């Protein structure tokens, strides 16, 4: 079974064993839908049911069934929280992708000419950015927006970029 990390237990919140969880930006709606998660403790993935999720500024407050005190939660402080990959794939919208799906894709221009390869994905706080290593070995950051990246073809391992002047050299 493949797991994908969706957060990290940063600390406890209050005395009832509620977990303060850091998570990726724009994932509130997804986290609210989860009924259970896996916490990776040592090398084991331990399944926990979720009994409540709420949000406070930049983190989530998650209550797990069977965790009723600070002492119950402390062994998991610093642990990553995972869900099964299929759970994430089912929640992705039509124009949403997993980072590992984009890395390694060939980058082509609107005419289909190969211009590079995706070597990573990052976020500048406003947009997701794809890092493209061009044929000249230069690395360019391309905002992952429809106007610049009109087509992503995971099946054929190709991403089409509207290579406006100076975008990818």
Would you kindly provide a brief summary of this structure?
It contains four helices and twelve strands.
- What is the spatial order of strands in the main beta sheet? 1-2-5-4-3-6
At CATH level 3, the topology of the largest domain is: Elongation Factor Tu (Ef-tu), domain 3
In DSSP terms (H or I, runs of 4 or more residues), the helix count works out at 4
Can you write the helix and strand succession as a string?
EEHEEEHEHHEEEEEE
CATH architecture of the largest domain: Beta Barrel
Mean pLDDT: 88
Q: Rg from C-alpha positions?
A: 19 Å
Q: What distance separates the N and C termini? A: 40 Å
CATH class of the largest domain: Mainly Beta
How many structural units, i.e. domains?
2
Helix content: 10-25%
Task: Please describe the biggest sheet, giving its number of strands, its sense, and whether it closes into a barrel.
Answer: 6 strands, antiparallel, barrel
Structural class by SSE content: mainly beta
What does the overall shape look like?
A: elongated
Give the uncertain stretches in residue-range form. Answer: none
What's the number of extended β-strand segments?
12
β-sheet strand percentage: over 45%
Full CATH superfamily name of the largest domain? RimM
